[in-house]
Amino acid sequence: MSNLFDLLVAGLATGAIYALVAVGFTLLWQTSQTINFAQGEFVMLPAFLMLAAMHAGAPFWLAIILGILLSMVLLGLAFKMLLVDPMMRHGVLPLAIATMALAIGIKEAVKQFFSAEASPFPSIVPTGDISILGHAVSLQSIGVLVLAILAVFGLTALLNRTSLGHQMQAAAQNPTVARIIGVPVERMILLTFLINAFLVALASLLITPIYLAKFSSGEVLGQAAFIAAIVGGFNQVRGAIAGGLLIGVLDNLAASYVSTQYRAAVPLIFLILVILFRPQGLLGRAEERTV
Amino acid sequence: MSGFAKPLKIALGLAVIIGLIVIPMNFNRYGLFILSQWAVMTIAAMGLNLTLGYAGQVSLAQGAFVGIGAYAAAIMTTHGWPLPAAIVVAIILSFAVGWVLGYPALRVQHHYLAFVTLAFSTLAFLVFRNESWLTGGIYGISNIPRPHFFGIATNKPLPFYYVCLGSLAIVSLAVWWLIRSPWGRAFMALRENPLRAQSLGIDTRRYTLMAFAIGSALGGIAGGLYAPLTQYIDPVPFNLSLSLDLLMMVIVGGAGFFLGPFLGAMIAVLLPEWLRFTEGYYLMLYAIAVMLLLIWSPTGILGILDRTMAARRTKAASALRAVAKSRLETVQ
Known about the structure:
Chain B: It is a multi-pass membrane protein. Chain B: This is Branched-chain amino acid ABC transporter permease. The complex is a heterodimer. Chain A is an all-alpha fold. Chain A contains 11 helices and 2 strands. A two-stranded antiparallel ribbon of chain A has the order 1-2. In chain A, strand 1 and strand 2 (135-138) form a beta hairpin. Chain A is globular, with a radius of gyration of 19 Å. The N and C termini of chain A lie far apart (53 Å). Chain B has one domain: ABC transporter involved in vitamin B12 uptake, BtuC (Orthogonal Bundle), CATH 1.10.3470. Chain B contains 14 helices and 2 strands; from the N terminus they run ααααααββαααααααα. Chain B has a two-stranded antiparallel ribbon with strand order 1-2. In chain B, strand 1 and strand 2 (152-153) form a beta hairpin. In chain B, helix 2 (29-54) runs parallel beside helix 7 (157-180), helix 3 packs antiparallel against helix 4 and helix 7 packs across helix 8. The longest helix of chain B is centred in the last third of the chain and has 31 residues, at 301-331. At the A-B interface, helix 3, helix 4, helix 9 and helix 11 of A face helix 4, helix 5, helix 11 and helix 13 of B.
């Protein structure tokens, strides 16, 4: 039983990180119909920005702040202005393909300018175990879980309780009407891109100490977040949160109860089942068909 | 394309075909390998273009179908079967898997095929990697023989390049015929307006499924050629990135244009090779080139051509109208 408990905690911790990434993913989709195939690389990059700052002599706390700010400039502002804005009106697919190219570009740039090898990354949560209900649980898992949950709660509070959040939701749900009632839609869309950049930088900070910083680590992460978003419901922030947690737990349980070889298959089969029996996602709304 | 005079178009086409036959004769081994790879990837991209460009469905599993074809060919030819028989099996297998995969996905909702194929792509990779009794696992299958045709061995790079080129020609003719047949027109109706197509009595689900399964079968053919081309296969080349690369080829070349996959595969296979002199930067430059191209023309390379042709036609037409009008005025 202690094994199951550990697995659940570890699964929830990775799941919470998937949830952060998946939430950003659905935010971009809702406000600008951007399917970001580079989302995994967006998580991979900030860790390297922070490492670069530390190599330049910055202390860890400063490197974190610089990394997050730089991510918001590069992955938020520059991504939106240089790639999304010129392509948005041409439909979903060309932009999705352009983000695939962007993913290749980011991966290669990190490989070329930083390293092709995996680098260790310091943890912001102290390592070691604590005892909960007689089980030894890794502090890192608990710390990751707490921080990710705080971020998600902060975001949902922003979206549901503040005027800014309501304006963002209005801009996402009906841009035309939002514009008429005076919501600065363009600024709201930019804000979601900045929030996404902040979320991926935070995810990067939390996940990299566990899996090391490597140029190719975005592939697995991006796919996990994508699956989490579909499973939870593509058009719902709380769906992405539930999807992320669920995929994280499933993945960890599958690794020890199914087989290590086919652990990656379990979330995928689950995805196919969800699509067959609840296509709008577990918590999603069905989309109306447009003619 | 109709801006060209027809004889000019035919002459240009013939020149390209003769060029593809004659010029590679004094290429080295590596050049021939790259060119053969272009032919193989063009076949796979043509299949995806049927699914995406003509029937309007996104498939993220074309790379997995190339893998299925490659493993079918590798397993059969290393057990003494001739390559054509293996390719027939590859076609049947990919078509059947495509049908089984597409049937439930298209039952639910239109764009869910993309999600199901995304999952399938990784599942197929896991099967290639883990079922070592069949696929050799991570060690793969080596010593894949190249075929003999009419007593001529194609072991050398040049003869095998002609096998790839010949297969490309056959597939191109078949696709050319298909998109001009009533089926092809039905596929396009699905892309343009699925609801209207349905109200006109087209069984949309069946036709979409058919386009996807035929497209997947072309992926299988490409795989059947890929295995003897590289003579060694392992699971790595058939992961999700191949599917994404193929999707990129179709969009960059121009989805829904017959010649789109030829150009897209050329960019994806040849451009990185041309950029090799920049060493570590070549894939980065390739990625930037693709992004710039898509910002400039989201409909791909042929989209640019199409627009210039259309602009020229409108210009010519308005010039003719102006002439006609002034003539009318002078008569009055």
